[in-house]
Structures are given as structure tokens and as C-alpha cells.
TrEMBL record:
Residues 133-327 form the Gfo/Idh/MocA-like oxidoreductase C-terminal domain. This is Gfo/Idh/MocA family oxidoreductase. Gene3D superfamilies: Dihydrodipicolinate Reductase, domain 2, NAD(P)-binding Rossmann-like Domain. SUPFAM superfamilies: Glyceraldehyde-3-phosphate dehydrogenase-like, C-terminal domain (SSF55347), NAD(P)-binding Rossmann-fold domains (SSF51735). GO terms for molecular function: nucleotide binding. Belongs to the Gfo/Idh/MocA family. Signal peptide: none annotated. It comes from Paenibacillus lemnae. InterPro entries: Gfo/Idh/MocA-like_OxRdtase_C, Gfo/Idh/MocA-like_OxRdtase_N, Gfo/Idh/MocA_Oxidoreductases, NAD(P)-bd_dom_sf. Residues 1-119 form the Gfo/Idh/MocA-like oxidoreductase N-terminal domain. It holds the Pfam family GFO_IDH_MocA_C.
Length: 332
């Protein structure tokens, strides 16, 4: 697979490191407006550095391009690449509006190219393990979940995150990870209710979301930009026969407690995931490349990505109005 990278910031470098060590993959080029960043990504991946992405495409003829530019530029690059007949792996969220996300999906389908959106949380071992345990009935019927995602504000060259018109803010950029995962867990959302602090007043951006699903399940999400500690993710999924907990600050990967275990007066069953040889971003992009080669459907589809955008936008509307927002259906 001949692949190139456009955008060599934090995520572009992550792709460069992973693609550079992936068997059967040749990173032919890395492009960024900042020459030094393009060169750093080229050094990590074995590709050639460019400051002009179109020149890179003309010179290297990649089959697939990883789009790691800021969110507000996703649509522009995805559509231009699709019209060149190039498959696309694009960072999340798909776009800042549902209309743009749907247009990206439509044009890629019309051009006969594959579009993948990097909702990488589905590839984190503990999150994937939790889904497997829920679907195998380990905790009975899952009815309630709580997700937390806390981190510092992006710094340095990533200050575009601070402009909601470019990043979508904490809900669209950070919390969309857990929005997508909650939808993967529980299905379509019936209504949302959200609140968020004003970072211009508080100096932090903290959001709380309640998602009510058509299945009757409820998920509560919190997201925090400006957290003073290490990046932290947590979740708890509760069923009628037990619960699953995860905390990234703990050594153990997963904590599974079941009513059956309690009835036998046993301690909670600790089920750690095996240490992974590669990080989840490696597994994600490897999966997408395999889907291009085989024609199979990915773990996270473009319709899933559109749904996550739709739910995130409804949450932002609720936070602005202070009222619950009903969902109109799926975003496929």
C-alpha cells in the first residue's frame, strides 16, 4: 500500500510513526505547510517531505492519504482527494456540520473511493473488551453508562482547537470519542441534554451530557479541557447482572463485577487486557488499510461518523438553549 500523510502536527506524527513500521505499507510522502514538521514526519515514516500537498500527490501517486489537518479543513481535503480517486483515512470528527459530513460521504461513494474516520476509541483494548463483555451478556442487559474524558488544553501549534469555529469545542472534538462509543454500545439516540462552561469566563471548558437512547438506556458523559492532571479516561457500564469499570489511572485494565460473583461471596473478577505490541492508532489504521484491500466494512463506518457529528451538534444546541434536544433519526 502506497500511502501519504497530509498534516504533520500531533496526529500526523502519530500516523507517521505507526505507518513507518507497518509491514506492506510504503509512506511515499508527508506534507505540511511547515517544512520542519513535514521533515520530522518524513524522518519517522521513511517518506519524502513536501510543503505543497498537491505536488506530493502528483509526484508520489499514493493509493491512500491520511488526512490529519485541522477539523475545519477536513471537507476541503477529503473532497479534493476523492475527486482524484484516492482512498482517505481522515481524523475525527468527520466535519463540523452534518451537511458537510454527509456531502463527504456522498462524494466518496460517487467517486468509488473509501472514506474512514478515525474514531480510535473503538480500537483501545479496554473499550473493545468492554463492548465484547457487554455483547456476550457478562453483565446482563446494559442499561446505564458513565464516561469521562479529561485533558489539558492543546498547546503550541495546536491553538486552533481554542476556536470553536475551527474545532467545534470540547463537545465536538474531545467528547465525540465517547459519543461515538456510547452509540456503538447502545444504538440510536432519542434525545440529548447538555451543559458547558464558557472558557472565556472560567478559563476551562467543562461539559456534561446526558444521552437517552431509543433502547431506553442512558449514558452520562463529562469532558474537560483544562484538567490540571494527567490525561484521564474513565467509564462505568452497568447492566442488570453486573457492571464494568475502567480508569486509565489504574494499573488494571478492566474491573468486572457480577451479581453471580457476589452471590458466591467472591471478590470482583479483574480482567486485564494483554499488553499490546502496537498502540490503538496502529491497529486502527492497519484495520482501515485491510478494509481497502479486502473491500470489507470497517469497525467504524462513515455512517457511524455522521451519527456522532449529528449527536454532538445536538448536544451543542442543548448547551446553548438550556433545553433537551430530540434527535430526528439516524445520520446515515
Amino acid at each position: 500500500m502506497n500511502i501519504a500523510i497530509i498534516g504533520c502536527g500531533t496526529m500526523g506524527m502519530t500516523y507517521a510513526y505507526n505507518l513507518g513500521k507497518m509491514p506492506g505499507v510504503n509512506v511515499s510522502g508527508t506534507a505540511d505547510l511547515l517544512k520542519e514538521r513535514a521533515q520530522d514526519a518524513a524522518s519517522a515514516s521513511g517518506g519524502k517531505a513536501y510543503t505543497d500537498w498537491e505536488q506530493m500527490l502528483d509526484a508520489e501517486s499514493p493509493e491512500t492519504v491520511a488526512v490529519c489537518v485541522p477539523t475545519y479543513l477536513h471537507k476541503e481535503f477529503v473532497i479534493k482527494l476523492a475527486r482524484r480517486g484516492i482512498h482517505i483515512i481522515c481524523e475525527k470528527p468527520a466535519a463540523l456540520t452534518l451537511e458537510d459530513a454527509r456531502e463527504m460521504k456522498q462524494i466518496c461513494e460517487e467517486q468509488g473511493v473509501r472514506l474512514f474516520i478515525g474514531h480510535v476509541v473503538r480500537f483501545f483494548p479496554s473499550y473493545a473488551d468492554a463492548i465484547h463483555k457487554v455483547r456476550s451478556g457478562k453483565i446482563g442487559t446494559a442499561q446505564m453508562a458513565h464516561f469521562k474524558r479529561h485533558g489539558s488544553y492543546p498547546q503550541g501549534s495546536e491553538l486552533w482547537y481554542h476556536d470553536p469555529a475551527k474545532s467545534g469545542g470540547v463537545i465536538m472534538d474531545l467528547m465525540i470519542h465517547d459519543i461515538d462509543y456510547a452509540c456503538w454500545l447502545f444504538g440510536d439516540v432519542e434525545s440529548v441534554y447538555a451543559s458547558v462552561t464558557d472558557p472565556s469566563i472560567s478559563g476551562i471548558e467543562y461539559a456534561q451530557i446526558t444521552l437517552k437512547f431509543q433502547s431506553g438506556a442512558i449514558a452520562n458523559l463529562t469532558g474537560f479541557w483544562g484538567y490540571p492532571g494527567p490525561f484521564t479516561t474513565q467509564f462505568e457500564i452497568t447492566g442488570d447482572q453486573g457492571l464494568i469499570r475502567y480508569d486509565s489511572n489504574q494499573v488494571q485494565s478492566l474491573d468486572l463485577k457480577t451479581l453471580a460473583g457476589l452471590s458466591k461471596s467472591q471478590d470482583a473478577v479483574q480482567v486485564p487486557s494483554s499488553p499490546a505490541l502496537h498502540d490503538p492508532y496502529y491497529g486502527e489504521v492497519k484495520h482501515f488499510i485491510e478494509c481497502i484491500q479486502s473491500g470489507e466494512e470497517p469497525i467504524v463506518s462513515i455512517s457511524d461518523a455522521c451519527r456522532a457529528v449529528e449527536v454532538a451538534l445536538a448536544c451543542k444546541q442543548s448547551a446553548q438553549t438550556g433545553q433537551p434536544v430530540p434527535m430526528g433519526g439516524t445520520a446515515s
